Amino acid sequence: MRKLLAIMLIGLCCFSCGKATDNIPSVPVNFSAPINDPRLAPLTSGGGVVFINGYGVAGLIIYRTGSGQYVAYDRCSSYQPEKKCAVTLDASGFSVTDPCSGSKFSLADGTPVKAPATKSLRAYSVSVYNFQIFVSN
């Protein structure tokens, strides 16, 4: 009985080991700017994208979808986020690439479209009110 209990405890310890988390760290984000701010000029039409430094883990991505909605993500790749690798815009303008791993993510919804990433980029809430854009979590 003791041997069986010892084997079960060893097995439990072996299979429960691993990374505690591999998610992008949650940090407070509270960005706001007038919608006519020159930094946001690319957002005047669908498909426009801007990068804002100094917010989130590796900066913000704000993207205007073809339907005119705004979405925002952290630039930190979801693949090995401890490296804090900031994604870069692809030539197509519809996806971003993690230069550290080669993972690609869709700007429409933040989902990975090329491995090795399996998790989406961290998304933030976006609202527009009185010609001000707000990004927060």
Overview of the structural elements:
The chain is mostly beta strands and 137 residues long. The chain has 1 helix and 10 strands; from the N terminus they run αββββββββββ. It has one helix at residues 2-16, and strands at 30-34, 49-52, 60-64, 70-74, 88-89, 95-97, 104-106, 112-114, 123-129, 132-136. 24% of the residues are buried. The model is unreliable at 11-21 (pLDDT under 50).
Largest sheet: 6 strands, antiparallel
Task: Return Rg in Å.
Answer: 19 Å
Number of helices: 1
Question: What order do the SSEs take from the amino end to the carboxyl end, as H and E?
Answer: HEEEEEEEEEE
Strand content: 25-35%
Strand order of the largest sheet: 1-10-9-4-3-2
Report mean pLDDT, rounded to a whole number. 85
What spatial form do the alpha-carbon principal axes imply?
globular
Number of strands: 10
**C-alpha end-to-end distance:** 52 Å
- The oligomeric status of these chains comes to single chain
Residue share in helix: 10-25%
Structural class: mainly beta
The low-confidence runs, each spanning 5 or more residues with pLDDT under 50, are 11-21
Gist of the model:
This protein is mostly beta strands and 137 residues long.
Name its key features.
single chain, 137 residues, mainly beta, six-stranded antiparallel beta sheet, four-stranded antiparallel beta sheet
